[in-house]
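Sequence in, structure out. Go.
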Amino acid sequence: MKKSSFLVLLSFLLVIPLLGVKNTAQAATNFADVPTSHRAAKEIYYLAEGDIAKGVSPSSFGPNKKVNRAEAVTFIGRALQLNGTKRATSFKDVDPGMFASGYIQSAAQKGILTGYSDGTYRPYKEVTRGEMAIMISRAFGYSFNNTTSGAANALISRGIAQGKGDGSFGASDLITRADYAVFLARAINPKFRVVSNTVDFKNARWVNVDSLNIRTGPKDSYAKIGAVKQNQQVLSAFKVGAWDYIKYGSFEGFVHGSYLRTTAEATNAGNVDPRIAKQVIVLDPGHGGSDPGATGFGIYEKNVVLDTGLKTRNLFSETPFQIKMTRSTDTYISLSGRVSYAKSVGANTFISIHANAGGGTGSETYYYSAYQNPNVADSKLLASKIQSRMLNAWKLANRGVKNGNFHVIRENTMPAVLVELGFIDTKKDNDMLRSDYWRNAAAKAIYLGTLDYYKAKGYQVDALYDVAK
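Output:
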């Protein structure tokens, strides 16, 4: 554990957002077989920027190679931020160690793909245009009557695909990696489509964080084109995984949906104990600023735990709880400053979020136990509830609920715990810590564990569990 203006613009991206995406990605990837003159260059480099589509080698994309079923579902799985952890699947011909096994199983569970009647998936079978249309239609929720022609029409009507010169869709034709990249990029970002005005911005959402970045794609790696301030309204058209495609003023782009709420004001989610409205929960993402915390495989603890903390806050924002954070940006806060802040806002519970280091694996949660400390029982109860939820969510090794002599839980005057999500310097744990999918799961675990604590203390919170669904 080694630990303001109304709208912020990046003016150089304002007028040429797609060109900026292409140039940024190409500079980083630089496929020798995809020059800027290639007909699919913009779309290929757009997907490469988000690590959605990778090359067949570090310097080659293989645009003319046919796409197989394993590659196709992997591209979609990365775009939708599905759980790609390699694991056993429901298909007898997909080895648990295969590169696409996690995405195949996740997509099957969501109904994006199906196997064959003999129980196989046939991962290396090449994909036809018709199969591509069905897969993309299912992935993005298009209505298509479960037929190939319906799926083709769903893509054509949205400007994602076009018919062939002979008037057909060419459903039985095999599809290349370049064409697949084009169709997927168009499904993700309407600015690539061949038909204008294909989306309807009809869902009002409100921003939950101090400043929410608008990006050109549904991942943090995509270029920022603007920002929206807290409590401002945006209009959402559709989702790509956890990200919303929104319109805000003259901007269209992606924001992370976990930082949006569906009401202008945070509301009481059902009939809950009125005492909840007086409960102050302080979330404490560890480290920050000049203190990166532990590091491993190119990521910093301070960034992982901040993102997890913000996701947790977003869940609580849909409830009557009063939620405070010791930090909501990449700033350094001293240990004593964190404790002083919790005391100053009258915190009833304090939850510090960290990532471990030292070569181990698993999750653990600490509380401070000392003679005559009035918070020992409640701190242990809170730690036990959060630890149980973390184990259920991440299914890593159970390192237990432990007594820890850490400043932020020792010096606080309310029930306080310190959560170690996993080991940042162990590859398996690191893969989860760096994953948006798994950080969302950790945030839900902390949220649900806290509800379990309050329920055990006699508060009526049953209606609040639905927030995490």
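Check: The first helix runs from residue 11 to 14. The mean pLDDT is 90.
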